[in-house]
Amino acid sequence: MGFTKVAGCTLAAVLTAGPVFAAQLSGDARASIPKDIQQIVVVDYRAMQNSSAAMNLKDKIMPPELKKLESALRQSGMKVDADTEVLAFAAFHSGAADATRTVGIAQGQFQTAAILANFTKQKVKGTPMRNNLVYPMGASGMSVVFLNQTTMVFGDKPSIKASLEAHDGINESFLANSDMMNEMAAVDTKAIWSLLDQKGTQTMMKSVLGDASQLTDYDSVKNRMKSSRYTMEFKNGVDFNMAVVMSDTMTAATAATLMKGMVLMKKTTSGSTGSSMMEKQALDMTSIGSNSGTLTVDYASTDSQFSTLLSSPLFQQVVH
To answer: Tell me, what's the pLDDT at 16?
Structure first.
């Protein structure tokens, strides 16, 4: 799936946020994610409903894969909007061909008895899969399984099968991915957060750097990228933070230099149109540095400044 567009996936989930809550995954949710994660995006779903601007903007950039999963959840006939607290999307490597699959996880307090009664009324039958029943979600091609009253898993059947095998201990789960679990501890108190593995990080950084990724220095740091993480806050405007974990301090410093060079290049080559001036302003509000082997990028703005940036060529280059 299109999770190679990792920056776009992350920001698409980010734009569904409103007031700040912590988006923490329960033990059941973590156990339902297969170990070999490429990217995971977690968002407080309650906050999503409270930001009309975010709801209007997210459709501009949300990748088709995420849109399909979210639409299936909303249109399945299940009245879960009011009950969902946290929504997560995980892209993971699967099978000998190293295919990438996606699974969605919703956690909250669901009226499972009423939902299952409605399925029965609509003559929607569940298909046994391990110790669970998997139900089709309308004409979307997606399916859903209720692990318990607080956790549901949705996606296509192969993805759900992989999720259940992880949850039931047949295959290893996210809980066994010590690197990702350690990274999660640094971000899961935030309202919106995302983790990327090495391959996802490399793809994202190449997209962000643009022409600067063609420089010789980039080749020297590419294979030393280990992982990355994002968070976003909306307490006072928009506060976006990215951290890219490198193999050593020198590599992180080199990557920071490359990104600063990219920013300078953008500033000097941009024209004087409204969108160009807007991009320059955004770059002025971006801070780049390195600390203990980690490249850091921080961006802060008002809500209106960020909303305007969404239509700029620079932003479209980053997310596509």
So the answer is: 38
pLDDT band at 8 (very low <50, low <70, confident <90, very high): very low
Mean pLDDT of 220-242: 83
Q: Over the stretch 165-194, which tens digit does the pLDDT of each residue have?
A: 999 999 999 999 999 999 999 998 887 888
* Residue keyed to tokens 């390195």: 290
Cα separation of 282 and 110, whole Å? 41
Cα separation, 124 vs 288, in Å, equals 53
**Could you tell me the pLDDT band of residue 304, with boundaries at 50, 70 and 90?**
confident
Would you say 253 and 204 are in contact if contact means Cβ atoms under 8 Å apart?
A: no
pTM, rounded to two decimals: 0.82
pLDDT over 60 (residue 13): no
